[in-house]
Each structure stands twice: as C-alpha cells, then as structure tokens.
Write a structure and sequence with these properties.
The protein has 318 residues and is α+β, with helices and mostly antiparallel strands. Helix content is 41%, strand content 21%.
Length: 318
Amino acid sequence: MIEPAIRSSAAGRAVESRQGVRFTAGDFIPRDSIVGCFPAHHFRSIPWHDHDFYELAIVQAGTGVHAGDEEAVPLTPGTVVFVPPGVGHEYRDCPDMHVLNWFFRAEVLDVELLWARHDPLLGQLLDPDRRAGGGHRAAPLVTALDPESVQRVHEALDPIRTGGATSRPAQIARLLLALEVVARAAARDVRPCAPGSPPLVVAHAVELMRSDLAHPWTLEELSHRTFVNRFHLARIFSRTLGVPPMHYLSRLRAERAATMLATTDLAVGAIGALVGWADPAYFSRRFRAAFGTCPSRYRRERSVPGHRAAELPTTSKN
C-alpha cells in the first residue's frame, strides 16, 4: 500500500506510461530543498515505476523483494536501494515492510556535484556509464549496511528532515556524507561477473523451467516466481536469449524429448507427457516444428543401440 501522502501529493503529477508510473521531484521534494524525505509502509507490493530524481531507500523493518529490470533482490532491515533517475523498479512480496526514502534532485549533479561522477568512490553510484557496466542500461544498486553504517546515514540526513539543515550547502554536505557510507558498502559488495553471463532473473527463469518441464508454466507464474513484472521479464529474456520465455520453454521441451527418444525405450506418448506435452498430437506438432520430423521417425533415425529406460534423465518437482 502506498501511503496516503503519496497518493495525494502525486495525484496530479504522476504520469502513466507504458512502463508504469513516473514521479517527478515536485511530488516528494519541497520546492526550496534539494533533498526530500518520506517514510513509507510497503504492504504487499509497490507497482513498477520510475522518477526523475535519485532515490536512496533504507529498509527499517520487515522484508520484501526489490525488482529491477534485470534482477530481483531480497530485502531485510539495513538493506539500501539506490535508484538513479529514469530507472524503473518495483517492490514485491512485502508483507509488512517499512522504508525510509530519501530523494534528491538530479540537477544537483549538473552543478554542485558534477565532479562526483568522476570520483573513484562516488562515481559507482552517480555515473550512469560506470553503473551500467559498459554499454548496458543503468540499474538500481542494492547493498546492505551494518547497524553502525545505518546510524551514520541517519545522523547525516536527519537534520534535513528535522529542519536543522535548510540551506543548499548544508543539504549537499550532509547528502555527501550519506552517499559516502553507501558507496563504501557497495564497493565491498562488488563481485566480478563472468563475461556474457545472463542477468540473474533470466538465469532463474531458465532454471525453473529446466527443473520441471512437465509443469504447465505460464509467463505470469514465471514473473511471480522470479519477482519481476511480466512485461519486463519478457523483455529482458528476449533481449538476452533472443526469444520470449515461452518460446524458449518449447525449445527446452523439444530438446529434452529428443534426448529421451534417442536414449530410452519409453513410449513416445510417455515422453511427451514428461516434457509437458501430454497430448500426443500436440507433442508431434511441436516436435516437428523444432526438428522437422515426427518423434517416431526421429527415434528410428537417432536411437542409440543398447539404450535402456533407466537412462532417462530425472526431472525434479518443485
């Protein structure tokens, strides 16, 4: 549930788009400030949205899942989510999560903090090119703070919320202190990523399908199980593997069926059921679409002499 204050303040300014709701700085940041604060109660979910300002969200209590364009990350108290302008994200599976949101205007990086984009430490938060990892879209940064670091962030930013830091220089100084804490935590979390490795959400979806091909998978269920909006799952999946999730599932089923046809004595109909195509006629059509021949002929041409039914690859149920 979005707090009533969000509903009322954003009612006239949030803009619906194909990718969700867009919020503007005026929705949450006072006109005479560069930093705004909003404590929010996330109940169940916060739909996909983006904004034209930076967001620094600190989980204070409860649990949930943060979903970006390419991965979903579990949230616990002390987790910090840093979201650049224009980057879509959402919160899923939040039974009772309280978040303290800090927002600051993007234009401050074009004036007072222009140098920060090139800073070795702060650049990983504020430079879109470095955040994107060389040619990809920028993504939210999720990291964990220990209790001492959380306290340091609160001490740096609270005077802005309580009215003790109202001038632009004072707010910038306190913002920098908080960003330094987050940037140091993020630097410790950096892990090398193998070249060409798929986004986590894509790898997760593929593993789910591989683990139980007989399951009647749908895009809706895959999006729920991977904690990503269905539109974004389909888009990032297609961008990574070249085909939508359901097309990829058909390929997996056909390949598994081909292996079993060539290496086991199982009946053709039984193989179809094991890969999720229980209707023999439908199994034959899908298999022919993938291999240009029917399952029976494929078996005659590719069967391995001396194969045994015991060699059937096992399929684990979720």
